Amino acid sequence: MQQAQHPIHSNRTIKSQPVAKSPSRNPPITEHLAYLLAQANREINRQLEARLRDEGVPVEQWRILKVLSDGKGHSMGDLADEVLLNHPTLTKMIDRMVSDSLVYRVQDPDDRRKVLMYSSERGKALTQRLNALALSQEAHIAESYGDKATAELKRLLESLIDTAT
Amino acid sequence: MQQAQHPIHSNRTIKSQPVAKSPSRNPPITEHLAYLLAQANREINRQLEARLRDEGVPVEQWRILKVLSDGKGHSMGDLADEVLLNHPTLTKMIDRMVSDSLVYRVQDPDDRRKVLMYSSERGKALTQRLNALALSQEAHIAESYGDKATAELKRLLESLIDTAT
DNA sequence: CATCAATCCTTGAATGTTCAATATTTTCGA
DNA sequence: TCGAAAATATTGAACATTCAAGGATTGATG
């Protein structure tokens, strides 16, 4: 139950100072880097998601499979960093992937606190199909957005990540 | 079909074809645009989150407040698009913000299916403090990452969003 | 103008994520 | 070598998001 508080007397009359530019500009949200990144990420992620839907696999699982496709064992901690998930989320997602026989756990013989993750044969086969889907998205972007712009954007993003981490 | 089944005898011996470049390159995940965007977004979002923590407000609520700070009523549908949330998520977040007296609902008199959202006085005051925090982040990025690079990155992101939507 | 379709928002159930706490193993200093 | 502290992964409970369905209102069509 909401009463119409006092929406209408928008006091446009106040109209304070002619906007001092330097100390406190007030840009619209669409000019904030954080917002632009969120928006671009959301859109590109959606497109990728749509392609991966052919195989019924969420984007995060593709990342996991892709990282594991080097055949080496990755500890849960390292993997979490690599695929941009925090630990409990990864644990539970891995649980599902183990149920689907896409990956398996092996206790690290050198440090028994660690669990090393490996991709199964089934996981590897799926990875190949997913790679093709992901590459087709990259190709589509490069085509519609332009090779130059794509390369430049990637370069700037890498550099931002370096700076920010 | 490579038989790496069990982890340790990594048969580097198979070593298939010398990698045909054109038809199926296989870049590491760190070269995918989708991944770079996710990573950059995650990092910048984290930093912003950390700053907003002073006021105990999640990033999404800042976006909502910022959009509503124009004083005009925004329908839930429009608002959802503007703040990059889907409808049910927004509804429930708005519920919380109403509990906190930051915003309020008014039924649109011209179309009674719609609900118009407004920022309360309390919400507006908070918005100002949040704006300052967000701006300080932008300033910090511009400083460490460079004005030029920041501007160029924003430009490319806007352009990507245009292309991709 | 009556009805059927479309639009808009919300809800409830299922699902997923996160935080804090726990168990296990390793590391390291006294 | 012993014990405390750190590192690693998991779990359970709290919380948030999503999907599908629903109720209300409006628009369009015959």
TrEMBL record, chains A, B:
Stretches assigned to the HTH marR-type domain: 30-162
GO biological process assignments: response to stress
GO terms for MF: DNA binding; DNA-binding transcription factor activity
Span list, region Disordered: 1-28
Keyword set includes Nuclease: no
Superkingdom of the source species: Bacteria
PANTHER family (alphabetical): TRANSCRIPTIONAL REGULATOR SLYA, TRANSCRIPTIONAL REGULATOR, MARR FAMILY
InterPro entries: HTH_MarR-typ, MarR/SlyA-like, Tscrpt_reg_MarR-type_CS, WH-like_DNA-bd_sf, WH_DNA-bd_sf
Name of this chain's protein: Transcriptional regulator, MarR family
Organism: Rhodopseudomonas pseudopalustris
Keyword Protease part of the UniProt annotation: no
